[in-house]
C-alpha cells in the first residue's frame, strides 16, 4: 500500500483539546479533581437525601432511630452534667489542710439546740420568759436545762485540746424571728464568759445553723466539721437530754454508720416536772425514727418542713463532698454505701 504524506496545505488532525470554530483556537479546560465529590457539604447533603429517602420508605424505623438518638443524647448530657458538678464540688474544697480554719482539731463536741433565746438582755438566761418555748416546754426549770447543756459542752471541750465545739440548731420557730438555736446557745455562752473557760474554748466554739431535728443535728454537724477542719471527726460526743441517748447513740449513729467505739454521749436530766411527759414523747419519736431512720418520709419529714418557717436554703453537702450520696439517701435501712469514717 502506498503511503501519502500531507503537505503544508493538507488538513491537520483534530486537536485533543476542545476547539472554538469561530476563533480557530483550542479551549483549555481545567481538569476536575477526582476528590471534588468528597466535599464535606456535598457529603452531608448526600447523606441527608439518602436518610430522608429511607425514612420515607420505613417511617416507623425512622421514628425509633430518632427516638433512640434523642434519648442517647439526653443520657450523655445528664452524665456530663453530673460529672461536672461532682468535679466542680470537689475542686472547690480541694484545699490543703493549712487552708482550713481549724486543721489540727480532730474531735467533734456537738450540743443539740432545743430553743431560741429571745430576750434583748442576757441577764435572765435561766428564766423561761427569756426563751421561745413550745407549749410542752413551758415548765418551771426548762430554761435551766438549756444552760446546763451549754455548760456541759464547754466543760467537755475544755478537757480536750483537739476538740471543736459546735452548737447545732436552725431558725426553727417563726414567732421567734430569724434567729437560730445555735446562735442563741453561742450568745448565752458568751454572756456567761464561757463559764470561766473563755481563753481555752471560745476560739474553737462555732455554730451549725440549719438542723431541724436531732438526726440533722448529727449529720449537719459532721459536715460542718469537715468544712472547718478539712477532715472528718475522729470521735464524736453529743450533748443533750439523757432520755434521748438511745435515739442519738443507736438510731442516728447506726443510720450513718459511725463506729460505736468512737461515739460518746453526755446526757443531762430534764426538768423534774417534765420527765414523765418527756419519756412518753421520746418513745413516740424513737418509734418514728426506727421506721424512718433518715427522717425523710411521713410525719418526720413534715415536722422538718414546719421547722423551716423562713425557707432557709441548706448548704450541705457542699462542704463535705464525700457525703453527697449519704445526703441523697432515703430508706428504711442504714446507709449501705462507703463512708469516709468507716
UniProtKB/TrEMBL annotation:
<keyword id="KW-1133">Transmembrane helix</keyword>
<feature type="region of interest" description="Disordered">
    <location>
        <begin position="1"/>
        <end position="34"/>
    </location>
</feature>
<dbReference type="InterPro" id="IPR055323">
    <property type="entry name" value="C57A10.07/YOR238W"/>
</dbReference>
<dbReference type="GO" id="GO:0005737">
    <property type="term" value="C:cytoplasm"/>
</dbReference>
<feature type="transmembrane region" description="Helical">
    <location>
        <begin position="60"/>
        <end position="80"/>
    </location>
</feature>
<protein>
    <recommendedName>
        <fullName>DUF218 domain-containing protein</fullName>
    </recommendedName>
</protein>
<feature type="compositionally biased region" description="Basic and acidic residues">
    <location>
        <begin position="15"/>
        <end position="25"/>
    </location>
</feature>
<keyword id="KW-0812">Transmembrane</keyword>
<keyword id="KW-0472">Membrane</keyword>
